[in-house]
Amino acid sequence: MEANRLKHLYVEELKDLYSAESQMVKALPKMAKAATSEELRAGFQEHLKQTRGHVARLEEIFKTLEESPKGKKCKGMEGLIKEGGEMIAEDLTPEELDAGLISAAQRVEHYEIAGYGCVSTYAKLLGEDAAESLLRQTLEEEKETDEKLTDLASGINLEAATSEEAVDSKNGRRTSKAARA
Q1: DSSP characters for 21-34?
Q2: Largest CA distance in the chain
Q3: Which of 7, 49, 118, 143 lies 20 to 30 Å (CA to CA) from residue 43?
Q4: What is the pLDDT of residues 44-73, one digit of tens each?
């Protein structure tokens, strides 16, 4: 592949990631609000701060490339966020909701890990050393977030697996035994 074609692909993939991260800046507060686990809520809030940093890094790379980050909508992220939103709207017990939010968040992280892995490789091949360093930093943060979600899931998934469901007689909503205690 010619270097100029790789550079074109690199810029297009960076735009896709910029759109994805920008969408996550809007979605993470909704995920944090929906989470019933304090630890999960705090994790989403922490990742929101991190995601804003990812956007800033991408903007720095675009400035160096003298390119605009705008113009491309990441449809993959749009779909992942839509699925997460649908889960929030479902009538789930608190434990089920938190387990589902972790699942949705991990799909997002895996999508981002794949994207950052590719663009950091392109940056290396194109001799974009400063960009490669920034992209690898973001890639490592995405991997760390995925690991934190996996750690949280071990407890939350167990709670969801062992919770017993009932319908609250006051409002007709589903609750778990743990939520009623």
Answers
A1: HHHHHHHHHHHHHH
A2: 67
A3: 118
A4: 999 999 999 999 999 999 999 999 999 889
Residue type at 145 in one-letter notation: T
Q: What is the pTM of this model?
A: 0.86
Tell me the CATH number at 79: 1.20.1260.10
At 39, list the tokens. Answer: 């630890």
Amino acid at 99: A
- Reported for 22-31, long-range contacts at CB under 8 A and 24+ positions apart, including other chains, are 22/55, 23/74, 23/77, 23/78, 23/81, 24/51, 24/77, 24/81, 24/108, 25/51, 25/52, 25/55, 27/81, 27/84, 27/85, 30/85, 30/88, 31/84, 31/88, 31/101, 31/104, 31/105
